[in-house]
Amino acid sequence: METKLKRLLGAVEKELLRRPDKKVLDRLSLLAGFQDWDSFQRAWDGRKEDKVESSK
Protein backbone atom coordinates (compact mmCIF):
# COMPACT_ATOMS: atom_id res chain seq x y z
CA MET A 1 0.00 0.00 0.00
CA GLU A 2 2.76 2.44 0.90
CA THR A 3 4.54 1.82 -2.42
CA LYS A 4 1.37 2.54 -4.39
CA LEU A 5 0.89 5.79 -2.51
CA LYS A 6 4.47 6.85 -3.21
CA ARG A 7 4.01 6.06 -6.91
CA LEU A 8 0.78 8.03 -7.02
CA LEU A 9 2.33 11.03 -5.28
CA GLY A 10 5.32 10.85 -7.62
CA ALA A 11 3.04 10.88 -10.66
CA VAL A 12 1.06 13.83 -9.29
CA GLU A 13 4.26 15.73 -8.56
CA LYS A 14 5.57 15.11 -12.09
CA GLU A 15 2.33 16.39 -13.59
CA LEU A 16 2.36 19.52 -11.44
CA LEU A 17 5.95 20.25 -12.37
CA ARG A 18 5.28 19.70 -16.05
CA ARG A 19 2.32 22.06 -16.29
CA PRO A 20 2.60 25.13 -14.07
CA ASP A 21 -0.59 26.98 -13.18
CA LYS A 22 -1.48 30.06 -15.27
CA LYS A 23 -1.14 32.26 -12.17
CA VAL A 24 2.43 31.07 -11.67
CA LEU A 25 3.27 31.76 -15.31
CA ASP A 26 1.73 35.25 -15.04
CA ARG A 27 3.84 36.03 -11.97
CA LEU A 28 7.03 34.78 -13.59
CA SER A 29 6.24 36.92 -16.63
CA LEU A 30 5.84 39.95 -14.38
CA LEU A 31 9.32 39.34 -12.98
CA ALA A 32 10.64 39.27 -16.54
CA GLY A 33 9.02 42.65 -17.25
CA PHE A 34 5.89 41.56 -19.10
CA GLN A 35 2.26 42.23 -18.26
CA ASP A 36 1.25 38.57 -18.20
CA TRP A 37 2.06 35.15 -19.66
CA ASP A 38 0.25 35.88 -22.92
CA SER A 39 2.29 39.04 -23.59
CA PHE A 40 5.49 37.12 -22.79
CA GLN A 41 4.53 34.41 -25.29
CA ARG A 42 3.73 36.98 -27.99
CA ALA A 43 7.10 38.64 -27.48
CA TRP A 44 8.89 35.29 -27.50
CA ASP A 45 7.13 34.21 -30.71
CA GLY A 46 8.10 37.52 -32.29
CA ARG A 47 11.76 36.93 -31.44
CA LYS A 48 11.63 33.48 -33.03
CA GLU A 49 10.22 34.99 -36.23
CA ASP A 50 12.94 37.67 -36.26
CA LYS A 51 15.65 35.01 -36.01
CA VAL A 52 14.15 33.02 -38.87
CA GLU A 53 13.93 36.09 -41.11
CA SER A 54 17.45 37.29 -40.28
CA SER A 55 18.95 33.89 -41.08
CA LYS A 56 17.62 34.00 -44.66
Structural class: mainly alpha
Instruction: Please mark out the parts with pLDDT under 50 across 5 or more consecutive residues, or reply none.
Output: none
**Count of helical regions:** 3
N-to-C CA distance = 59 Å
Multimeric state of these chains? single chain
Rg computed from alpha carbons, rounded to a whole number of angstroms: 18 Å
Strand and helix order: HHH
Summarize the main sheet: none
Strand portion, in percent?
A: under 5%
Helix amount, in percent?
over 70%
The counted number of beta strands is 0
Shape summary: elongated
Mean pLDDT: 82
Architecture overview:
With 56 residues, the chain is mostly helical. 80% of the residues lie in helices and 0% in strands. It has helices at 2-18, 22-31, 37-54. It is elongated, with a radius of gyration of 18 Å. The mean pLDDT is 82.
List its traits.
single chain; 56 residues; mainly alpha
What's the SSE blueprint?
Blueprint (H helix, E strand, L loop, with lengths): L1 H17 L3 H10 L5 H18 L2
Helix pairs in contact: 2-3
Quick structural gist:
The protein has helices spanning 2-18, 22-31, 37-54.
